[in-house]
């Protein structure tokens, strides 16, 4: 009995050891699985975050058509052309007008900086003027001036001797 | 008989001549100095009148010369104003010509002023009356007037020369200089 119990007691640790070993083997596989899962989660998260970023960018960074205010809605009673804004309590507003297609934003083309050209020394340009018959005007005035005479103002002929004093 | 008649006639002739001579001795004495003074006065009146007529004629000559010359000077002023206006419209630089044209117009104004003074002064000779007033007094006043008139004529002649000088030495030079400015149609 004692041997038997001894054997029994001896086998027990052996079983325990095998279990532990089996547990250790499972733990190694689990770790590998966990690592794989974590990797998958990280990759999926990254992809999800990327798509979320694209969605947010599309929603908030792209310009939208201006929202139609309730005052611009037209009720069925006003189809004749009378325009009366729909109040808050109106129940049958017409559908808002179709959204105006947003024009795609044209990316700004960067303007290359203009390099200032070195200024050349300015040559004073003579003022541009029209033509005029100066010679004709001078000839005309000369002719008139030549008709004047100063012999009458010769003071010697107005002396006392000239008058016969 | 004939001797008696001849003697009688001669006797009568002598008697008549003697009577006339006796009557002549009774006439009042003629004042020869008064006659000389009167003759002198007439001579002075004639001289005074001659001087007055000559001076009045000179006054009219001056007036006509002033009117004629002033008209021609102002005609040139008008031509200059027209030239400046048209040249300015055609973008010529007319600043210098404007300045000298103003100087020319000032000289023309001076000429007219001196002319008027000379003519007005000489025109007083027409008021002298050689027949009523003392000819000596009138002649003396005309003599003084002539001397003063001399200075007025000198000023008038100088202002005439000034007008010509400004026109020939400044205005014409400005026009020639202005005509050298570059032009385009």
Care to count the β-strands of chain B? Answer: 0
Return residue spans of chain A where pLDDT drops below 50 for at least 5 consecutive residues. 1-16, 73-84
Written as H for each helix and E for each strand, in order along the chain, the element string of chain A is HHH
Total of DSSP H or I helical runs spanning 4+ residues of chain B: 4
Structural class by secondary-structure content of chain B: mainly alpha
- Identify low-pLDDT runs of chain B: none
Explain this structure.
The complex is a heterodimer of chains A (165) and B (185). By secondary structure, chain A is mostly helical. Chain A is 47% helix and 0% strand. Chain A has 3 helices and no strands. In chain B, 84% of the residues lie in helices and 0% in strands. With 185 residues, chain B is mainly α. Chain B is built from 4 helices and no strands. In chain B, helix 2 runs antiparallel to helix 3 and helix 2 runs parallel beside helix 4.
């Amino acid at each position: 009995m004692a041997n038997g119990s001894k054997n029994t007691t001896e086998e027990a640790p052996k079983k325990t050891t095998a279990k532990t070993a089996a547990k250790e083997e499972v733990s190694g596989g689990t770790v590998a699985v966990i690592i794989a899962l974590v990797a998958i989660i990280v990759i999926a998260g990254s992809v999800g975050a990327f798509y979320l970023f694209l969605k947010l960018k599309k929603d908030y960074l792209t310009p939208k058509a201006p929202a139609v205010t309730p005052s611009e809605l037209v009720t069925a009673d006003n189809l004749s052309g009378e325009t009366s804004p729909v109040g808050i309590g109106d129940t049958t507003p017409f559908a808002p007008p179709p959204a105006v297609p947003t024009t795609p934003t044209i990316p700004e083309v960067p303007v290359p900086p203009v390099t200032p050209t070195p200024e050349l020394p300015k040559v004073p340009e003579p003022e541009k003027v029209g033509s005029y018959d100066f010679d004709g005007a001078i000839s005309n005035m000369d002719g008139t001036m030549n008709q004047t005479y100063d012999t009458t103002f010769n003071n010697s002929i107005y002396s006392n001797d000239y008058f016969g004093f | 008989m004939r001797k008696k008649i001849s003697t009688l006639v001669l006797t009568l002739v002598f008697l008549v001549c003697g009577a006339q001579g006796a009557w002549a001795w009774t006439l009042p004495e003629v004042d020869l100095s008064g006659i000389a003074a009167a003759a002198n006065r007439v001579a002075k009146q004639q001289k005074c009148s001659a001087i007055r007529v000559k001076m009045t004629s000179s006054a009219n000559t001056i007036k006509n010369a002033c009117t004629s010359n002033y008209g021609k000077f102002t005609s040139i002023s008008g031509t200059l104003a027209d030239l400046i206006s048209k040249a300015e419209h055609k973008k010529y630089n007319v600043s210098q010509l404007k300045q000298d044209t103003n100087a020319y117009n000032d000289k023309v104004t001076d000429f007219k002023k001196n002319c008027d003074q000379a003519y007005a002064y000489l025109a007083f000779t027409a008021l002298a009356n050689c027949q009523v007033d003392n000819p000596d007094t009138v002649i003396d006043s005309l003599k003084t007037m002539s001397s003063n008139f001399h200075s007025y004529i000198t000023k008038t002649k100088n202002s005439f020369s000034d007008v010509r000088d400004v026109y020939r030495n400044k205005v014409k030079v400005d026009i020639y200089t202005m005509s050298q400015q570059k032009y385009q149609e």
